[in-house]
Specification:
Strand order of the largest sheet: 3-2-1-6-7-8
Largest sheet: 6 strands, parallel
Strand content: 15-25%
Number of helices: 9
Low-confidence stretches: none
CATH topology: Rossmann fold
Helix content: 40-55%
Radius of gyration: 17 Å
CATH architecture: 3-Layer(aba) Sandwich
CATH class: Alpha Beta
Number of strands: 8
CATH superfamily: 5'-nuclease
Oligomer: single chain
Distance between the termini: 38 Å
Number of domains: 1
Length: 194
């Protein structure tokens, strides 16, 4: 049995270059975690804007990104088109995408968008627990503490690769020396043109 990785994109990459200070090369990222942590599968949990594209979470199927891209092109949604092209590139690199439709709602008079994937990631950690040896979690979200403690209690090693300033203290305490600050990997993972 090999190790698997589970990436909470909104927690780890929130704000992207603006917050992190550098751009991530996702091809380097997947190669790094496969090499360093002996990972064979890398799941990537994130939201995607559908902009009227017909899709139902009640059906047991993934969002067809190529059809969505055609739809967004017709609707002339350049920002959403770029995001879908990014996801298609991640698939080429070998990521297993777990995408969820972004929901739009009003809060205090402002339009908010959300695609919380924490439950999906947690469900997969538990659903597949007999298929992987150890788990690499790319998230510092304290909501995961319960499932991470459980995984450790059944003999799995849990590694956490996350941004230190966005990682819950309890997560760092739980995994101890198996925590690594994502920011310190800039030299290995930064996207460089050329």
């Amino acid at each position: 049995m090999a190790n698997w990785a589970f990436i909470d994109a909104s927690n780890l990459f929130y704000g992207g270059r603006k917050n992190l200070g550098w751009s991530i090369d996702y091809n380097k990222l997947i190669r790094y975690i496969k090499r360093k942590y002996k990972v064979t599968k890398v799941f990537y949990y994130a939201g995607v804007e559908l902009s009227g594209f017909k899709y139902s979470v009640l059906k047991d199927e993934e969002i067809d990104l190529k059809k969505l891209l055609k739809h967004l092109t017709v609707e002339n949604k350049p920002i959403d088109i770029q995001r879908v092209k990014f996801y298609l590139k991640l698939q080429e690199f070998g990521f297993y995408l777990k995408l969820k439709p972004v929901k739009t709602f009003k809060s205090d008079g402002r339009v908010e968008k959300k695609a919380n994937c924490d439950v999906d990631l947690t469900f997969d950690l538990m659903r597949y627990k007999d298929k992987y040896k150890d788990a690499l979690i790319l998230s510092g979200d304290g909501d995961f503490i319960v499932v991470l403690k459980y995984l450790q209690s059944i003999g799995k090693k849990v590694y956490v690769l996350a941004r230190a300033e966005r990682t819950a203290r309890e997560i760092k305490q739980l995994v101890g020396g198996e925590f690594r600050d994502f920011v310190r990997l800039r030299n290995e993972l930064e996207y460089r043109k050329g």
